[in-house]
Amino acid sequence: MNITVKFRLVILLLLAIASTPIGAQGPDLETLGRPGPYQVAWFTQLPPRDEFSAATLYFPANKGLDFGGVVIAPGFLEQQENISWWGNHLASHGFAVLTLDTNELRDDPALRAEALMAGVALLRGENTRQGSGLRGKILGDRMAVMGHSMGGGGTLLAANAHSAELKAAIPFTSWLPDADFSAVTVPTLVIAGEIDRIAPVADHAWPHYQSLNAAQPRMYLEIGGGNHFIANSETDNARLQPNVDVHDLLGGVAVAWLKLFLDGEEEHRALLFGGLPNDIQGRLSRFEASE
Description:
The chain has helices spanning about 5-20, 30, 85-90, 110-125, 150-160, 205-210, 245-260, 270-275, 280; strands at about 40-45, 50-60, 65-75, 95-100, 140-150, 170, 190-195, 220-225, 285-290. α4 packs across α5. It has a nine-stranded mixed sheet, with helices on both faces. Helices cover about 30% and strands about 20% of the residues. It has nine helices and nine strands. α3 links the parallel β3 (about 65-75) and β4 (about 95-100). Residues about 1-25 have low confidence and may be disordered.
């Protein structure tokens, strides 16, 4: 190697060092709990599916390629507006997110599980559909399901029956009594509220978590003083009283979960399994995690 080439390499190395911010760090849950770096766009003109009545597809408008996909189902008597903040938050962090309206507001968890898997199929179809704004951008092998209450029960049922088609599951304040989810083989984050009166944790979220296969990554995150609507959007319906003050915590942990298990970004593993910061632990009434 001649002197000129060596000199150029040294200059390039110095420039790279100079352009690296002093004290730059990896991801943290506080940052992941805030809106992400991508601009969010959405559309509702989607191919119809028999399993659900309507849907909205949120996506990161200024991310060129390679979106993992997330499908989210609302709870009993709920519609998309009750889970819309998840669509915006997750899309701002780089995911394609489909929120659903069930065919009937009273659809049971089994029907919601079918709707979720139909949503997964729709997302995969958008990657190849002529005229889709996301054609060629969605990674069909990176899919996750989420849901609230009966939608959370549907999330677990979908993962129980279709783990081979999924990479992760996140039920929040899930409702489904006397259920066994030992067939789930995808990493599952169970979000619960300590004072949930509709789906008490002793009868729903906690036994749901305990029934999961311990050989798979799993996490139980119970918000101290949290009700049934801790992970829901704020709406004009005062009855729901969502704990929007914990959205930063729930959003941060959920993004880290999806970044790790959907996108395979290992730098997020320590955030989840390396011991939660004291300020976060102070907001929890119960926490358990295993890899």
